[in-house]
Write a structure and sequence with these properties.
heterodimer; A: 4 strands; globular; B: about 230 residues; alpha+beta; SH3 type barrels; 2 domains; 6-stranded antiparallel beta sheet
Chain lengths: ~220, ~230
C-alpha cells in the first residue's frame, strides 16, 4: 500500500506549497480533522500525549539522571556503559532512547550534541527540543565552529580543553553528563538535579556553578 | 539526497536564538497550541506500514523554500500529509480541503479508544524502539582503523552528510548492526554494522582554528572504506 515513491512525494510537496492554508494552526487542524474523520485517531489521546510531554516527560528526567550519576558511582558506571538500561532503572526509557549514549564532560573534554540532518533528540529524557536546536543556525554551525557556537551561548572553552561534537546521524542518541559543580557535597539528589540545566545536557552550557545555585 | 536538509557546515544562517526561554521552567513544553497538537498527533498516529527513514525522507523532500521558512512542527504536518497520501489514506483533494470525502475508516477497524495521560506515559516507555539486530556477518572494521568515507551521495535518503564525504576518520566504536536507512527508506529492511567514526575537525574544515577538536558521526559500513 505504501509506495515509497519519492518522486510522487516531491511533486506532492510542490502542490501542498501552493494549496495548503498558510497558517500553521489551520494546517494542523486539517490534519487532525482528517485523521478523526477517517477513524485513525482519537482527539482525547492527542490531549493525553500533550499533557504527558508537558507534565511528566521532560528535562527534569535528564536532570535526575545526571544528579544520580553524580551521587552514585555505580549508577554512573552503568549509565556510561549502557545508557538505555541505566535510565530504564528510573522508568525513563522511551521515545528515542532505545540506544542512548551518555558522554562525560571532564576538565579536559567538552561535549556538544547536534543533528545536522534533521533534529534527532532523546525525547524521553529531555522532552521537546528547544527551537534553536532544530533551527538551521545551530545545525549548520555546530560541526564547523563549535567554539563559536558555545561562545554565542556564553560558554568560553579554553584552548587546552578538547571539544567533541556528536552529530546524531543514526539511531543512537546522546546525553551529555556535565561535571558536578564544586562545593555540592552536602546537597541532596533533588537539590543537585535543580542545578542541572537543559542546555548542559545538550552541551551548550558547561559551568553549572551559578551564584544563585550556591545559596541552595 | 543532496537536499536543503543537509545543513552541516553551511554558512549564512545567522545567529542562534540563545535567549530562547526553557519553557519547561514555567511548566510548559510548547510555544503554540498547534505545535502541541502536531506533537500529540505524531505520538498517537503514524501512517501504517511506514518507517522512520521514509518519514525522514518525506520531510527532506519538502520544497527548499518551505523547509527553511515554515515553522519546525509545520514541516512535520506537511510530512504527515505526504506519507498519508503516499500510503493511500488521504487524497490530495482531501488534504487541501481539510475534510474526508469518504467518511469511512480506511483501516476497516474500530476507531482508537481515548488514552489517558498515564496511558500515554506508559506507551512512551514502549516506544523505546531498537534498531539493531544480530547478523551473521562480522564487522569489517575494528576500533582504531583509519577509514575514508564515500566521495558521493545518491538521490535517495542517506545519513552520510555532505560535509563528511571523502574524509579520513578513525573507527571510535562498534555499535552492532543497525537498520540501514538508505534501503529502509525504500521499504527494504536490511542491517549493517554501524560505527562511531571520529574526525579531526581540521580534516573536515581546513579553515578551522582549533584543529584538535573532534567531530563524531555514526556511519554504516558501506559508507566507509579502509584508507590505505
Amino acid at each position: 500500500m505504501v509506495e515509497f515513491n519519492a518522486k510522487k512525494v516531491a511533486v506532492l510537496h510542490q502542490h501542498l506549497h501552493s494549496h495548503l492554508p498558510s497558517e500553521s494552526a489551520l494546517r494542523v487542524k486539517a490534519l487532525e480533522t482528517l485523521l478523526v474523520e477517517k477513524g485513525l485517531i482519537n482527539s482525547a489521546s492527542i490531549d493525553a500525549w500533550i499533557e504527558a510531554y508537558t507534565e511528566d516527560i521532560g528535562p527534569k528526567r535528564g536532570a535526575h539522571v545526571v544528579a544520580k550519576a553524580w551521587n552514585d558511582a555505580d549508577f554512573r558506571q552503568r549509565l556510561v556503559q549502557d545508557g538505555s538500561s541505566a535510565i530504564d532503572e528510573l522508568g525513563y526509557l522511551g521515545n528515542a532512547t532505545g540506544h542512548l549514549k551518555v558522554i562525560e564532560n571532564t576538565e579536559s573534554v567538552h561535549n556538544l550534541v547536534v543533528c545536522t540532518l534533521c533534529s534527532c533528540y532523546p525525547f524521553s529524557i529531555l522532552g521537546i527540543a528547544p527551537a534553536w536546536y532544530k533551527a538551521a543556525a545551530y545545525r549548520s554551525r555546530a560541526v564547523r565552529d563549535p567554539r563559536g557556537v558555545l561562545a554565542e551561548f556564553g560558554v568560553q572553552i579554553s584552548n587546552d580543553v578538547e571539544v567533541r561534537v556528536w552529530d546524531s546521524t543514526a539511531e543512537l542518541r546522546y546525553l551529555v553528563l556535565p561535571q558536578r559543580p564544586r562545593n555540592t557535597e552536602a546537597l541532596s539528589e533533588d537539590e543537585l538535579a535543580s542545578l542541572v540545566t537543559r542546555n548542559s545536557m545538550i552541551g551548550t552550557d558547561r559551568d553549572l556553578v551559578k551564584k544563585d545555585a550556591v545559596k541552595a | 539526497m543532496d537536499g536543503i536538509h543537509d545543513l552541516g557546515g553551511k554558512h549564512g544562517y545567522g545567529a542562534i536564538d540563545v535567549d530562547e526561554m526553557d519553557l519547561y521552567k514555567i511548566g510548559e513544553a510548547f510555544n503554540h497550541d498547534w505545535e502541541a497538537r502536531e506533537w500529540g498527533i505524531s505520538r498517537c498516529a503514524r501512517t501504517p506500514n511506514i518507517n522512520i527513514d521514509w518519514w525522514r525522507h518525506c520531510r527532506e523532500l519538502i520544497t527548499p523554500v518551505d523547509y527553511l521558512s515554515r515553522p519546525y512542527f509545520d514541516t512535520w504536518v506537511q510530512t504527515d500529509f505526504a506519507t498519508y497520501v503516499d500510503g493511500g489514506f488521504f487524497t490530495v483533494e482531501e488534504v487541501c480541503s481539510g475534510h474526508s470525502n469518504l467518511g469511512s475508516n480506511p483501516l476497516d477497524e474500530a476507531p482508537p479508544k481515548p488514552m489517558s495521560k498515564a496511558e500515554a506515559v506508559i506507551a512512551d516507555r514502549q516506544n523505546a524502539y531498537r534498531f539493531d539486530k544480530k547478523i551473521n556477518q562480522l564487522p569489517f572494521f575494528s576500533i582504531g582503523d583509519q577509514v575514508i568515507t564515500n566521495p558521493h551521495g545518491h538521490c535517495g535518503h542517506t545519513r552520510l552528510p555532505q560535509y563528511a564525504r571523502n574524509r579520513v576518520g578513525k573507527i571510535h566504536a562498534l555499535n552492532g548492526a543497525h537498520v540501514f536507512p538508505d534501503l529502509s527508506s525504500q521499504g527494504l529492511e536490511s542491517h549493517q554494522h554501524l560505527y562511531s567514526v571520529v574526525f579531526e575537525i581540521g580534516d573536515l574544515w581546513p579553515d578551522s582554528n582549533n584543529k584538535h577538536d573532534k567531530v563524531f558521526l555514526d556511519l554504516w559500513e558501506t559508507y566507509l572504506s579502509i584508507n590505505d
